Amino acid sequence: MSSPFIVIITTTSNKEDANKIAQTLLAKKLAGCVQVIGPISSHYYWKDELCQDEEWLCLIKSSQQHYQTLEKTIQEIHPYEVPEIISLPIQEGNQGYLSWLNQQLK
Questions:
Q1: pTM, 2 dp
Q2: Where does the sequence pass through the membrane (predicted)?
């Protein structure tokens, strides 16, 4: 059975920006939990150039109904020209955790 919850992924170039995103989303009750992981090594093409950068990964737990507002909020405070903001469905999960997550969201 599919749940209404999602994990949104975004990356930043430094821990301070990742923490700012986490704190903003939590304060606005758009996320129940944000894990900041890093540094990680990201490899990608940008403007026809192969890049390798150190980044910080944010794993944001939220719900599908909050996605549009959450994406807009991240874009408003994210320093990247084109930030990675992708959503993955939570197909199943510990019911106690999902209940807790639901209570954290507005």
A1: 0.94
A2: none
